[in-house]
Amino acid sequence: MQSKKKPTPIYEVINEKGSSHQPEFTISCKVDLLDELVIGTGSSKQKAEQLVAAKILMQLENSK
């Protein structure tokens, strides 16, 4: 996003579930270059954010 001079993405936790031993985090992110909200789920906030970032990159590459 920085290379395109756009604001950095802001990630938001939209759901947390599971036990402390098997948590599941659902993260959403909206970026200016895409019309829709991107959502990902992972066993940690970091993993969910990484999944969302990968989805965003794929969508941006496919939109070229």
Sum this structure up briefly:
This protein has one helix at 45-62; strands spanning 10-17, 24-30, 38-42.
Notes on the structure:
This protein has 64 residues and is α+β, with helices and mostly antiparallel strands. The protein has a single domain, classed as Double Stranded RNA Binding Domain (2-Layer Sandwich), CATH 3.30.160.20. The protein is 28% helix and 31% strand. It has 1 helix and 3 strands, in the order E-E-E-H. It has one helix at 45-62; strands at 10-17, 24-30, 38-42. A 3-stranded antiparallel sheet has the order 1-2-3, covered by helices on one side. A hairpin with a 7-residue loop joins strand 2 and strand 3 (38-42). The radius of gyration is 13 Å and the shape is elongated. It starts with 9 loop residues before the first strand and ends with a helix. The model has no long low-confidence stretch (mean pLDDT 90).
Query: Total strand count, please?
Result: 3
Q: In sequence order, what are the helices and strands, one letter per element?
A: EEEH
- Number of individual domains: 1
What proportion of the residues is helical, as a percent range?
A: 25-40%
Broad structural category: alpha+beta
Q: Quickly name the level 1 CATH class.
A: Alpha Beta
Strand fraction: 25-35%
Which key terms come to mind for this protein?
64 residues; three-stranded antiparallel beta sheet; Double Stranded RNA Binding Domain; alpha+beta
